[in-house]
């Protein structure tokens, strides 16, 4: 049975969305095409009508994951517009975010995997990281009137590192300690 163009486009978006979540949960190599397509409610044969390769899908899913992360930052700041940096820090360095393996930060979930991928998969991460740095830089400027790319880089690095370490350990108290230590360091850095 032939699928209409609009249905094919909808199927493609579904696959990208499902892949974005499943890749964050299992890694790029942690799920095969058959299971990925099953998760999207489609057959494996439909994959090659939509994507050139699994790397093509990984690039598209990475872009979607980074877009999703930026939207989550926006939602956090919209909830607390008087302190957007504090809102992002509170959301990002939380035990709730730590537990969101399918919907959490793609840099944490896929960073080491992406580092081993080709340029097409790395490109959406680079674009998303640059966008995160721009947002943080803007928040720093709003908070203390200074422009500081270096400070934004240090903050993002601290946030990503703390969330990664909190996910690596089993002990929830230690995980919380990593998140709390990072929160305190970031607040001190911004105030300095």
Describe this structure in words.
By secondary structure, this protein is mainly α. Helix content is 78%, strand content 0%. α1 (5-26) crosses α4 (54-79), α4 (54-79) packs across α5 (84-92) and α8 (119-144) crosses α9 (149-168). The longest helix has 26 residues, at 54-79.
Could you write a compact summary of the structure shown?
The chain has 192 residues and is mainly α.
Distance between the termini: 64 Å
Outline: elongated
CATH class division of the domain at 59-191? Mainly Alpha
Structural class: mainly alpha
Largest sheet: none
Radius of gyration: 18 Å
Assigned CATH superfamily of the domain at 59-191: Tetracycline Repressor, domain 2
Fraction of residues in helix: over 70%
Report the CATH architecture of the domain at 59-191: Orthogonal Bundle
Low-confidence stretches: none
* Residues in β-strands, percent: under 5%
In total, the number of strands is: 0
Name the average pLDDT: 92
What tags apply to this protein structure?
192 residues; mainly alpha; Tetracycline Repressor, domain 2; 10 helices; 78% helix; 0% strand; elongated
Q: Strands, helices and their partners?
A:
Blueprint lengths: L4 H22 L6 H7 L7 H4 L3 H26 L4 H9 L2 H5 L6 H10 L3 H26 L4 H20 L3 H20 L1
């Amino acid at each position: 049975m032939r699928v209409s163009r609009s249905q094919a486009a909808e199927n493609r978006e579904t696959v990208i969305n499902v892949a974005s979540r499943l890749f964050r949960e299992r890694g790029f190599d942690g799920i095969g095409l058959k299971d990925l397509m099953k998760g999207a409610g489609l057959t494996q044969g439909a994959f090659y009508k939509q994507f050139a390769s699994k790397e093509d899908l990984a690039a598209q899913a990475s872009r979607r994951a980074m877009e999703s992360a930026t939207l989550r930052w926006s939602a956090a700041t919209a909830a607390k517009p008087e302190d957007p940096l504090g809102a992002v820090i509170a959301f990002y360095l939380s035990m709730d975010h730590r537990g969101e393996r399918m919907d959490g930060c793609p840099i944490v979930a896929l960073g080491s995997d992406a580092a081993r991928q080709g340029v097409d998969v790395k490109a959406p991460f680079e674009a998303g990281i640059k966008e995160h740095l721009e947002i943080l830089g803007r928040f720093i400027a709003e908070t203390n009137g200074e422009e500081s790319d270096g400070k934004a880089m240090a903050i993002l690095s601290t946030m990503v590192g703390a969330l990664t370490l909190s996910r690596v350990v089993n002990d929830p108290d230690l995980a919380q300690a990593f998140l709390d230590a990072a929160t305190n360091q970031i607040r001190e850095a911004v105030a300095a």
